[in-house]
Amino acid sequence: MPQSPTYDDVQSAAARIASHAHRTPVLRSRRINEDLGADVVFKCENFQRMGAFKFRGAFNALSRFTAEQRRAGVVAYSSGNHAQAIALAARLLDIPATIVMPHDAPVAKVAATKGYGGQVVTYDRYTEDREEIGRALAAERGLTLIPPYDHHHVIAGQGTAARELFDEVGDLDALFVPLGGGGLLAGTALSAKALSPGCELYGVEPEAGNDGQRSLRQGAIVHIDTPKTIADGAQTQHLGTHTFDIIRRDVNDILTVTDTELVECMRIFGSVMKIVVEPTGCLGFAAVRKLAAQLRGRRIGVIVSGGNIDLDRFASLTAS
Ligand SMILES: *Cc1c(COP(=O)(O)O)cnc(C)c1O
């Protein structure tokens, strides 16, 4: 891709996905507002198609394929939400999808990807490199590789969630966004700078995988080993070059939270707001709870990024 995406790209993504993606609800809780002494709005991407915001970027990227690319198909590597997003978007656009997943990926995730019509190719995550396999498949079969975050059209698509949020609630004082490889945070930054330029923007990642925070402080992308955390959507080893450029330009800071703090948020979302949120989807809210003293009296936005967790796991994590 030539230059870095801009808010114009987010707007054109919004038009492309409009008739396929849900405009997800913005929820509030009086009880949470009273507890925190702030006015908090939650953009609930757990209600997005396939259960996470990733459908936005995937559909935007695939909708731009040429006739030839469509015929040959798409390949993606992911064990999680990006796989399901690509498989679903490809099915809607009638594009064959090949998804590279570890052979020990959760059965439910493999089944969901196959259920959306994706052809699953497995690999050994301890001895093989998924990016290499993805690239090899792309070269051999003429497939187009769509990476999970470091891609112009993926970033622009992810930015449409915040665009809808500002459209609905107006200016915010601060917005808190889950951070893995940075597609969601970078896209959100494009919308925030255009629509609410005074809004402070924070990325939030698991404490065990604070590569984003270290990257921002060092001014260069830091690589880490796959972090041990329940936030499986944020187990990335490094930011992307495109996402990092936007993040270092537009984001105020990157914060971290612990797995225990994520579980507390899952419980609050479930018991107070009656919604199921996966651990990664709780990152933003966990940071808001931690900073509550500084946020009193302010208008705060939180992106709730996804809700894909099987019920047995939800129950065991949230059991007291
Ligand atoms: C992928 C994902 C993230 C992280 O998104 P990036 O664009 O990689 O930063 C956060 N939450 C959920 C639910 C995800 O699936």
UniProtKB/TrEMBL annotation:
Source domain of life is Bacteria
All copies of the Tryptophan synthase beta chain-like PALP domain together span 19-306
Q: Name one Pfam family in it.
A: PALP
Q: Which UniProt keywords apply?
A: Lyase, Pyridoxal phosphate
Please, one GO biological process term? Answer: alpha-amino acid metabolic process
**Enzyme type, top EC level:** lyase
The catalysed reaction is:
L-threonine = 2-oxobutanoate + NH4(+)
Give the Gene Ontology MF terms in alphabetical order.
Answer: ATP binding; D-serine ammonia-lyase activity; L-serine ammonia-lyase activity; magnesium ion binding; pyridoxal phosphate binding; serine racemase activity; threonine deaminase activity; threonine racemase activity
**Enzyme Commission code:** 4.3.1.19
Q: Which InterPro entries match?
A: TrpB-like_PALP, TrpB-like_PALP_sf
Task: State its cofactor.
Answer: pyridoxal 5'-phosphate
Biological role stated in the UniProt entry: Catalyzes the anaerobic formation of alpha-ketobutyrate and ammonia from threonine in a two-step reaction. The first step involved a dehydration of threonine and a production of enamine intermediates (aminocrotonate), which tautomerizes to its imine form (iminobutyrate). Both intermediates are unstable and short-lived. The second step is the nonenzymatic hydrolysis of the enamine/imine intermediates to form 2-ketobutyrate and free ammonia. In the low water environment of the cell, the second step is accelerated by RidA.
Family named by the database record: Belongs to the serine/threonine dehydratase family.
What this protein is called in its record is threonine ammonia-lyase
Ranked from the top, the taxonomy reads: Bacteria, Bacillati, Actinomycetota, Actinomycetes, Streptosporangiales
